[in-house]
Amino acid sequence: xxxxxxxxxxxxxxxxxxxxxxxxxxxxxxxxxxxxxxxxxxxxxxxxxxxxxxxxxxxxxxxxxxxxxxxxxxxxxxxxxxxxxxxxxxxxxxxxxxxxxxxxxxxxxxxxxxxxxxxxxxxxxxxxxxxxxxxxxxxxxxxxxxxxxxxxxxxxxxxxxxxxxxxxxxxxxxxxxxxxxxxxxxxxxxxxxxxxxxxxxxxxxxxxxxxxxxxxxxxxxxxxxxxxxxxxxxxxxxxxxxxxxxxxxxxxxxxxxxxxxxxxxxxxxxxxxxxxxxxxxxxxxxxxxxxxxxxxxxxxxxxxxxxxxxxxxxxxxxxxxxxxxxxxxxxxxxxxxxxxxxxxxxxxxxxxxxxxxxxxxxxxxxxxxxxxxxxxxxxxxxxxxxxxxxxxxxxxxxxxxxxxxxxxxxxxxxxxxxxxxxxxxxxxxxxxxxxxxxxxxxxxxxxxxxxxxxxxxxxxxxxxxxxxxxx
Length: 471
What we know:
- The protein is an all-alpha fold.
- Helix content is about 70%, strand content about 0%.
- The longest helix is centred in the N-terminal third of the chain and has 35 residues.
């Protein structure tokens, strides 16, 4: 079930109506059932994997609390189960295929064994969230819960189940356990955020996604056409991923839950570190807390810190998919961070716009690596030079760039306005403005009406899945 579908709209309205008529204990049971219905709507076997993950981590956390002398054993059981499940469904064919290719290069005949299992949507997200619960119990950051329903509702909470944000037990589980009350004002703010997310997905992401898909389908793209396609993909992936997060946060708010912000205007970042403080915040902080810091973090010498950063980003890149281009993408961003840390230039504030532009260009180079899954094609792409382009190809590239830019204007205006201290729609449910009720309601209604009207007129005729469903 996807957010921008009629099935989800019906599911949402019916479930909200039932949910707020139930007491807390029944609400959590209802949320659990609703989440499993949501996740298994298209593939009924997907919830089986979700249940396995939940049961293993629930009992591992209980055993860690009950048997502190054996807690490391139960922690490793949780990690092995989660990474094992992820490895079988996401990485088995990749490893076996590369092993067979390496063997062939050495003259060994290693028969490839491909499982060809369909990748369950969101498996990378919910395994990391569930595993972090066990790790936090092991570290003493969270108590082991005794109510299975609460833990299961935490792991499977449907608004963010498929594409995040990845929530921690220390944040979301207390919300599952406490009394919740319906707030009309919060619901209105959440509705604005949902509509903004639908606008970004249907108008910005899907339209620029069509441009990007057509460009990357070309076998021999021109330099200008290629980079227009990269720009379109940069807009698509930001609008698409942040749209899912906004809709998820808005939907969760309707049920009385607060999910963390996952994006803070990343294309206005002034450097690599600033970018990762703004992009996919829940995942970047997950890798910081559970990979980078355990490796030693920044407590050692420069060489060790660089190694820790590179390992963290290689793992982060590989998390995105079973393909070498994702590993290269991780290595690329790890290298940018290491270089930035070693240089540490003090740039005047007046030059910050140039830093932002420069970082956006570097980010787009990374998106080319991320999007081009075939390494041979990636090499060909980076080998292109502008001087080899014809006037027609330059005109085509300019047209595609301007078209993608036109679709992205609302996104740029919103982010620039918010960066300068104006209204940030993604923060509206966190910091309600102290405006008179009637004017606030009228403003919200007008804003939603305008966005709905634009969606009806400009939405893409080609429906595209959320990009991060594949991860």
